[in-house]
UniProtKB/TrEMBL annotation:
Lineage, broadest ranks: Bacteria, Pseudomonadati, Pseudomonadota, Alphaproteobacteria, Acetobacterales
Known cofactor(s): FAD
Domain FAD-binding, chain residue ranges per copy: 2-345
Domain of life of the native organism: Bacteria
Organism: Roseomonas acroporae
Molecular-function annotations in GO: FAD binding; monooxygenase activity
Protein name per its UniProtKB record: FAD-dependent monooxygenase
Any Pfam family the entry gives: FAD_binding_3
Record has Metal-binding as a keyword: no
Entry keyword Flavoprotein: yes
Keywords: FAD, Flavoprotein, Monooxygenase, Oxidoreductase
Length: 396
């Protein structure tokens, strides 16, 4: 069996590695001329690190990542701190695997290296997917340079602006969420000494919030700031902003937030879009994974992890199939994943409201609100179902 994958991001490479390890032939067609990821952070909770260890790349990722020693909520104005659950030893004790905060290029590089070790020519660069055609017994992937690739199955892992999804199900039904996100990666040495901690922090406030966490063996700090604004609606990770504009969006916030903003060399901004969950991901021998089928707001820190889960479960479904059973195997994968990912998308939208609540404007209201919304039992209820998931046991 030969599997074509459109897109060489985290989900596409996870699927490729899991398929190669099961003895299937794989071609990954990636539009970029070189294989690299944007310089940004990603959180990999236990349900995701479980997959990385199952694929044999867990130790390589761990060498470059951080195991955050804890998580905190801090108030936008005063810096008042509420300690949440431990993310290190407790994650291993409770879920069996660690919680990593990872520099995205480190994770991407570990997966790409493992794929190339399994099959040196598996990844084809400068190969942008534009569409496909299905025929009896196979599928043809069409590329922007006029070339084609033939396979038994096609996986659309080509991201939020997926050409494969567009051909399957028509126009993208995205609408603006009313929020834009800022991102930046900061050398840890550029921050004041008291901020150089291996702790993940959510700064919460009315109408906006900031997330920070350590990356790359603690040498970097990731910054993500999300603000309610309606004057920027470009959905791209490569749009540059200015330090002045970013600082203005968080004017009046705590000096620690201001210190991070001033230490970002180039801040990037992108509009956060909402998309209704797809009712179907699969048509014949073609299916989708990751952002191509369940793009999400970043407020559950699960977008990358869910793509990684998709890739592993899909490989399990295909490994047990052959010939005429391939469309049925893709439908089994979809059935195994759709309800979970839809729930995650809805939970992320709910968290956006939680992080930006007007009750956070003043200390007195914030104290009661945080005590209620981030009480241990409520946090467990929001995250346990995600972290306990075992990709190797899902019925496919």
């Amino acid at each position: 069996m030969k599997v074509l994958i459109a897109g060489g991001g985290l989900g596409g490479l996870t699927a490729a590695l899991a398929l190669l390890q099961r003895g299937l032939e794989v071609e990954v067609h990636e539009q970029a001329p070189e294989l690299r990821e944007v310089g940004a952070g990603v959180q990999i909770s236990a349900n995701g690190s479980r997959v990385l260890h199952a694929l044999g790349v867990g130790e390589a990722v761990e060498r470059e990542a951080c195991e955050a020693s804890g998580k905190e909520i801090r108030l936008w104005s005063t810096g008042r701190t509420w300690k949440l659950f431990d993310l290190g030893a407790e994650s291993v004790a409770r879920y069996g695997f660690p919680y990593y905060t990872v520099y995205r290029p480190d994770l991407h590089g570990a997966l790409a290296e493992a794929v190339r070790r399994a099959r040196p020519d598996a990844i084809r660069l400068g190969a942008r997917a534009t569409g496909f055609s299905q025929h009896e017994g196979g599928v043809t992937l069409h590329l922007a340079d006029g070339g084609t690739a033939e396979g038994d199955v096609l996986i659309g892992a080509d991201g939020i602006h997926s050409a494969i999804r567009h051909q399957l199900f028509g126009e993208d039904r995205a609408h603006f969420s009313g929020m834009l996100a800022w991102r930046g990666v900061i050398p840890m040495a550029a921050l004041p000494a008291h901020m150089r901690r291996t702790v993940a922090i959510n700064w919460v406030g009315p109408g906006r919030h900031v997330v920070q966490y350590p990356l790359h063996r603690g040498e970097l700090m990731n910054f993500v700031g999300i603000v309610e604004r309606d004057d920027w609606q470009v959905e791209s990770w490569t749009q540059r902003g200015t330090t002045e504009e970013l600082a203005n969006d968080f004017r009046g916030w705590h000096p620690d937030v201001q210190a991070m903003i001033q230490a970002i060399e180039v801040p990037y901004k992108w509009a956060l879009m909402l998309r209704p969950p797809l009712e179907r991901w699969t048509e014949g021998r073609v299916t989708l994974l990751g952002d191509a089928c369940h793009p999400t707001l970043p407020m559950m820190a699960q977008g990358a992890v869910q793509a990684i889960e998709d890739g592993y479960v899909l490989a399990r479904a295909l490994a047990g199939a052959a010939g005429d059973d391939l469309p049925a195997a893709l439908l089994r994968y979809e059935a195994a994943r759709r309800e979970r990912t839809n729930r995650m998308v809805l939970a992320a939208a709910e968290n956006a409201r939680r992080f930006h609540n007007p009750a956070l404007a003043e200390l007195e209201g914030a104290q009661a609100y945080v005590d209620r919304e981030w009480a241990e039992d409520r946090v467990r209820e929001r995250y346990d179902w995600l972290f306990r998931y075992k990709v190797e046991e899902v019925a496919v």
